[in-house]
């Protein structure tokens, strides 16, 4: 039996791709072979995943589909009578993209509609968070189960994690995530403008992520804001980098700040915890669940009120250590909660 995984796209830095690689690694340890296929695969990622057209399905193969948007992948999988398993990563509401990328907005709407087809044709269903699981159950996935994302921090096992080595003298804000309207990098820039007006210019904000070329207008809007608000020295947008550079940027930063308004889980929150960055995040989507009473949540984007709160984390060592301590507990608990066993159970029954 081969266990093949499928998704709309594969890009080494994104959460779904990392999850597919980790599941493949864990299944391999259990003696299962299988490949990763996607409709869209960058040439430099093809040592990890293959284009959908190369998939050769045998009668006993199990097909695991990671769903987040409409693509040709679902139609391909539905051609086969094989056992099919859904892993649901959430579909971003289309309205975020209507003003920037109509095609992408359409694919998201179709991605929501695809869930009803999946519900009626797949054998088993999982969601990577309770937030996502509740969405599935609302549309009739009665037997859907939770399968927490598998985070691979072994790649950073050589990172010094001594909190005493991290400087909190000058704020170095970081956000990691796709350059996309739902991530609200524009609100991060607005926060930076408020911070500069109240606290001065001894800070930096880096926003690290890949931008879909079809959403260039949103990136252009962000760059215009940075220039127009006189933030070119403090605020930088960095295209996605390799793991070595990502590790360096996390290590150099001293706070993770999120304005995102829709997340099905948000892996970078956990990465920030690993690097001892206090997390301050807007309470939207699955973010409260992911933080689980750690970090700092805020429910209003009142930046005049948020700036003093954030400043207190830099100035009050006890408060900062308490935040980081709660995050360390949350991270340890989460890593202990992940298991490949639920997936193995449905493949063996």
UniProtKB/TrEMBL annotation:
* Organism superkingdom: Bacteria
* Keyword entries, A-Z: Glycosyltransferase, Transferase
The residues covered by the Glycosyl transferase family domain are 169-323
InterPro entries with a match to the protein in the record: Glyco_trans_1
- Class in the EC hierarchy, top level: transferase
Pfam families linked to this entry: Glycos_transf_1
The catalytic activity of this protein is classed by the Enzyme Commission as 2.4.-.-
GO terms for biological process?
Answer: lipopolysaccharide biosynthetic process
| Gene Ontology MF: a single term | glycosyltransferase activity
Gene3D superfamilies (alphabetical): Glycogen Phosphorylase B
Q: What is this protein called?
A: Glycosyltransferase, group 1 family protein
Protein source organism: Leptospira terpstrae serovar Hualin str. LT 11-33 = ATCC 700639
Transferase is among the record's keywords: yes
The record's SUPFAM superfamilies line, in alphabetical order, gives: UDP-Glycosyltransferase/glycogen phosphorylase
Task: Indicate whether Transferase appears among the record's keywords.
Answer: yes
